[in-house]
């Protein structure tokens, strides 16, 4: 029998039991430190007993399409053994997409931010099988999906196959939206996948190598080293900042002859960049980019892209101009995949930008198909659509009027079912629903307030104005995946004992609490070791302290301890040796 050395045993222990590791300490040069705790719980740690399915019971088949943030979060949190899970995706790994801009410039290596799907699910109590293939058709009527292998090897002509399901979880993400702008698909780079980041990195190096050749004119050299980013959202801004740091901290030292020819331009169709952030962050980012020499053109709409020029039109006066470039990165939003568009036609959602679901993430009109992440949008039901049913349910004595006491008995269910009510009260700085009702009856004491249906409608008439679509971010997708897994884990229990709010248009209660997104904050790295952070409670921080917070949070959010260690080591390597400029 082979005897293991100490180091082999140590390595095997951490490989088999990642929960042994609890924290990473990212120390600052000044002597301070930040501790990044992992939220990922190992599925085999024995802390939670999971009920086994009864003998003879057939397992429900759950098919998951996609291994992005939503799909991976669902797989990590699903722990009830009564499901047979089939995962289908054209990529066999999960990618930590918020670090893609860092990959484009060599700050982080591509391998450091990906984790094989089989590593994530191999020790779960749930039967999980993965197939590397692409789904090209969803047949809702027959509960089948049709897939095609993306392997180019000889499969005896059997590249396509069908899969049955009991529950289908669509978590396919989205693709870059070109808005049908001529030339974008053919001439622009996107930044959605790991392969995109690697192509951008190679193109940047190629541009510098070509510009260093002796047989070029100054005009050709300037064109080759003109990098244009279209889109002033978080991805475009972060890439522009990362590219600026890469050029000024590393490449100018290696290519001193062409350093004066480099130019970075950021095109944004709106009036400001980072529109979804606090105005203080937007103003700071624009000022910093101006100081750094990044040319920010606001109100510039791209109308055409050729292989050497990008045509823009100024919003307002319609003035057009042509900009020569060496590389264009397109980052202007997202759109649905073709398969999602086809499925939307099947379910009567042809005029939508994403697949509409209810508050429980079920595709509208279906009981067995769920959609989450960037491919879907939660269609929150309006209070005014159910106002008569709410009034009827609250009016238990059928008097035709509603007292404060009657309304208080259902207010918890109303706030759970319609979160815009609570948001409306908060924005109006009201302590409770009584204040809202008193607005309709200003001269009446609280105890004597009685509202008829018309007065009740008037009191709640502005509530639905607080409704907003959830942003297409990794944070939303991850929370949706975890929520849906929790629902699946408690499916049998909640069938018998529903936990959700009252059914105002029916009897009983909903099985589960509806999905509620909890915003934990957002970051905008701006280069030069400075990051803007906007956290809950209107707390804004900009500077190096926020950069270290960014390091800490992104390290803790890695999907495994392997990727966490690799990312942190990449950051340390960059601090010591700089970024790599080899073209591999």
Automatic annotation (TrEMBL):
Coarsely, its chief localization is mitochondrion
**TM spans (from-to):** none
Q: Which domain of life is it from?
A: Eukaryota
Please give, as recorded in its UniProt entry, the membrane topology of this protein.
Peripheral membrane protein
Please provide, in alphabetical order, the Gene Ontology terms of the cellular component aspect for this entry.
mitochondrial inner membrane; peroxisome
Keyword terms: Calcium, FAD, Flavoprotein, Membrane, Metal-binding, Mitochondrion, Mitochondrion inner membrane, NAD, NADP, Oxidoreductase, Peroxisome, Transit peptide
Q: Which SUPFAM superfamilies match?
A: EF-hand, FAD/NAD(P)-binding domain
What Gene Ontology terms describe what this protein does at the molecular function level?
Answer: calcium ion binding; NADH dehydrogenase (quinone) (non-electrogenic) activity
Domain named EF-hand: residues = 382-417
Cofactor names from the entry are:
FAD
Report the Pfam families cross-referenced here.
Answer: NDH2_C, Pyr_redox_2
Protein's UniProt keywords contain Cytoplasm: no
Q: What is its EC number?
A: 1.6.5.9
The family database entries (PANTHER family) matched by this protein are listed as: EXTERNAL NADH-UBIQUINONE OXIDOREDUCTASE 1, MITOCHONDRIAL-RELATED, NADH DEHYDROGENASE
> Which protein, by its recorded name, is this?
NADH:ubiquinone reductase (non-electrogenic)
Q: Which source organism?
A: Acer negundo (Box elder)
Q: What broad taxonomic lineage does this protein's source fall under? A: Eukaryota, Viridiplantae, Streptophyta, Embryophyta, Tracheophyta
